[in-house]
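step=encode ok
step=design start
structure_in=
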């Protein structure tokens, strides 16, 4: 069971890194992780983040991490057999 958890954790991290490398750009420049994962302090900032696409970017990066976790689980189960 420890091995499965380790596989999942490693592939979640790989998925998050790849997700950031794929989706973490605006106008060809990478956006800082603190900007992507920070919370909006007020409604105006929230609207600005939505217009800039930061919320969609954050969602895509997190989905990539989740997909990496699923891949890690599948590989762990395949290796167990």
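sequence_out=
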């Amino acid at each position: 069971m420890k091995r499965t958890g380790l596989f999942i954790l490693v592939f979640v991290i790989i998925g998050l890194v790849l997700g950031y490398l794929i989706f973490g750009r605006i106008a060809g420049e990478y956006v800082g992780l603190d900007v992507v994962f920070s919370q909006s302090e007020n409604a105006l900032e929230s609207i600005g983040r939505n217009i800039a696409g930061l919320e969609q970017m954050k969602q895509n990066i997190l989905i990539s991490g989740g997909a990496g976790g699923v891949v890690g689980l599948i590989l762990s189960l395949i290796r167990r057999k």
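step=design ok
step=annotate ok -> The chain has one domain: 2-76.
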